[in-house]
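Late entry, evening session. Most of the bench is empty. Finally got around to the prediction I had been postponing all week. Sequence below, unchanged from the version circulated by S.P.
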Amino acid sequence: MAMSLDGLRAWIGVVERKLTMRTRVFLVLVAIAVGGAAAGIVLAIDAQDNSVSKDDLQAVRDELAGTSAPAEAPQTSELEAQIETLRGEIAALRSESEAQSGGSEGSAKSDSGGASAPEEQQQLKEAGEEAVEKSKDEHK
């Protein structure tokens, strides 16, 4: 009877080692499955966040077709009108400055106003250029 009890203990030891190994393999597989599921959920959420809506698609189609929103057309024409107005003002100030410097060349240089006229002209030119650049940036 002692022999059969030792054999039974040996057989239980083998079964226990196999069960331990299977449990470890099972736990590793469960960990891999949970990680894969988490990665799948993250990718699905990211794909949903980055998906294109029907409104976005329609906006791109309209833009490609050339039918831009009607709100953009008045803004463009207003900006172009402002640019033309500024160009006209700059041209008028240039001609006025040239007339003043050409007509009263001797007296303008003796006064302190003669030195400030080119400075004012330069400042006006810079202001006009800044306005044109600003309107171009707003248009984009």
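Two things to note before I forget:
The two ends are 97 Å apart (CA to CA).
Confidence is low (pLDDT under 50) at residues 106-113.
Will write this up properly tomorrow.
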